[in-house]
Specification:
With 315 residues, the protein is mainly alpha-helical. Among the domains are: 59 residues, lambda repressor-like DNA-binding domains (434 Repressor (Amino-terminal Domain), Orthogonal Bundle), CATH 1.10.260.40; 83 residues, no CATH class. It is built from 17 helices and no strands. The longest helix is centred in the last third of the chain and has 18 residues.
Length: 315
């Protein structure tokens, strides 16, 4: 009970384990105290109480089961969601230490947002097992209310994990299901664009280029209706790539025109080659000396680059 009480007071003071333990004991030893694995000495309790601005007797009172003010919790959740958006993942470990998901009577949608923060953090760390565990909890809890942006973000991460596992068909099912629920309310928004964009990438993996092209057209139409210029550079590359894969080579070349982007240059060179304009293709290919296969935005471009290298590399 002492360990739980120390943890509660530490959280109320907004201190991490490292901050409380510094100069007194190791963080690992404090963690063991809070878990109830070890019993701290009186000397340690006195030092901890001074840092926490309390008395040793305060450690003996009953734990209040983390009944925090709801506004405070939501403010914390929103703060760390912003950290995820800004890819400031180092800060997330302090949020995890607070174990807000164990707060008594916490609403399921709020705990779902907490698990989504955890899932993003573990995905960043490449701890895929924990990422999967937390994203499933997030989706379960977020699905208890009307579909919202947090649920969509959870769906997107779930689909990404499935694609990484080679389960692209399951990723499509998850995305299509969320898109169906979203459109059922006949309310177009940014979430609609995010889901369709993710579906395009899945259908490209399936080599279903016509379907992917159709969805790109839907994205254009919805973007115009909403007045949103959604991922313009990425969408342009996908459009040209799909024109190439659907053998509309001249249209792809016309779309690209003059560009300094190496991926678009590659696509134009490939289109020129397919139209038997070998000299022009070769000249454009020679400008790709710094083309970095490891940083391409569309993985399938690697195959096009290797094919062009084999056919034009000796020119």
């Amino acid at each position: 009970m002492i360990g739980q009480r120390i943890k509660e007071i530490r959280n109320n003071n907004n201190l991490t384990q490292e901050e409380l333990a510094e100069g007194i004991i190791s963080r690992t030893y404090l963690s063991l105290i809070e878990k109830g694995t070890v019993q701290p000495s009186t000397n340690v309790l006195v030092k901890l109480s001074k840092r926490l601005n309390c008395t040793v007797n305060d450690f003996m009172t009953e734990v209040s089961h983390f009944k925090y003010n709801n506004f405070e919790i939501l403010r914390e959740i929103g703060h760390y969601e912003l950290k995820v958006t800004n890819e400031d993942y180092d800060a997330i470990k302090y949020f995890i230490e607070k174990e807000y998901e164990h707060i008594e009577d916490i609403p399921l949608p709020d705990s779902g947002r907490i698990y989504l923060i955890y899932a993003n953090y573990y995905y960043y760390l490449k701890d895929i097992k924990k990422a999967r565990l937390n994203i499933d909890k997030a989706l379960h809890n977020l699905s208890t209310v009307a579909i919202n942006q947090h649920y969509i973000n959870a769906v997107m991460l779930k689909a990404k994990l499935l694609v990484d596992d080679g389960k692209v068909d399951q990723a499509v099912d998850v995305l299509e299901s969320a898109l169906y629920m979203l459109t059922k309310f006949d309310e177009l928004n940014l979430s609609d664009l995010k889901l369709r964009y993710a579906l395009v990438k899945c259908y490209i993996i399936f080599k279903q280029y016509y379907t992917a092209s159709r969805i790109i057209k839907d994205i254009d139409s919805i973007s115009n209706r909403l007045g949103i210029d959604y991922k313009p550079e990425a969408i342009e590359k996908l459009k040209v790539f799909l024109l190439i894969k659907n053998e509309h080579y001249q249209e792809a070349i016309d779309v690209v025109e003059d560009t300094t982007d190496s991926e678009l240059k590659l696509l134009k060179a490939y289109g020129l080659y397919q139209l038997d304009k070998v000299r022009e293709a070769g000249q454009l290919y020679k400008t790709l000396v710094d083309f970095n296969v490891s940083s391409i935005t569309i993985p399938e471009l690697k195959d096009l680059y290797e094919e062009l290298t084999e056919r034009l590399g000796g020119l």
